[in-house]
Amino acid sequence: MSVTGTTGFRADTAAGSIGARWAAPAEESTAPIIVAIHGGGSDSSYYDLPGASLLQRAAMVGVGVWAPDRPGYGESATVQATTIEEAAAVVGEAITAAAHALFGGRPVVLLGHSIGAVVASAIAADTAITLPVVGLSISGLGPRVDEKGLAMAAALPPQGTVEPPPAPVLRGMLFGRDGTFTQEAFESFAAAAKPLSVSDPRQVNRWPELGPVLAASISAPVQILAGAEDGVWPLDEAGLAEMASWFSTAPFRDVRLIPGAGHAADHHRVGDAIRLRQLAFAIECGEALR
């Protein structure tokens, strides 16, 4: 189902072995490595589906991408990490291991979607981490949880996983209005959906509380991309500006409300524009070091 597939490289951590997808950079590239952290109910294939592969698009411009499976998902299914803090510790350790084995000391731009964006932010804010994090790109979040988000988290069982919802429900939750995506893109996304760890909705709902605290410790450039038709984290330009204001110590910010995009924005018709923005941001973060 994926475009590039997985590599044999696994990052060993104290909590267990983390699997990942890896698209190596061009030899002559000086751009940072992008570390792409997926959201809930998916694994690293979120960034590597046909017609919507960040790894494949990055390879076209010589940028390397390492996309780990978060604990509880994909090739990291046996690794346990329930809270944002636990996940950030495990994934941060895995990135450090990958950096030594694969990245050749290159700087890193952390990229995350939904709960993956919260995990990426927590890693970027960790002043004890030795990784050279030179940028943070997040998507699929807003400054406030709406009643629907609270109700969904409350309705889940106390632990374990739940199967992906039926296709019409998944479509209504994660995609925008008809015409903003193709049927082929939705079917590809739905086929790759994974059982949802029930801790994910509860943990991602901590973002309005955690976000300002984490942002205060992030000194790297920040990119915030939000779908204008996101039904999970509804927000407008004012809400986006509010969230961007949290990152007051960032040297520069790239903040955009993306028209025609729902929560799974990467898999809409504007998905390639999103990927190009993310790649451009990573390259700019590298140039800012010179």
Biggest beta sheet summary: 8 strands, mixed
Give the CATH superfamily: Alpha/Beta hydrolase fold, catalytic domain
Q: What's the CATH architecture name?
A: 3-Layer(aba) Sandwich
Described by the principal axes of the CA atoms, the overall outline is globular
Question: What's the CATH first level?
Answer: Alpha Beta
The number of distinct helices, counting runs of at least 4 residues, comes to 10
Number of strands: 12
- Helix share, percent: 25-40%
Number of domains: 1
Structural class: alpha/beta
What is the strand arrangement across the widest sheet? Answer: 1-2-6-3-7-8-11-12
Question: Ranges with pLDDT <50 over ≥5 residues?
Answer: none
User: Mean pLDDT score, rounded?
Assistant: 93
**What is the string of SSEs from the N terminus onward?**
EEEEEHEHEHEHEHHEHHEHEH
Here the CATH topology equals Rossmann fold
Q: Specify Rg, calculated over alpha carbons.
A: 17 Å
Distance between the termini: 39 Å
Q: How much of the residues is beta strand, in percent?
A: 15-25%
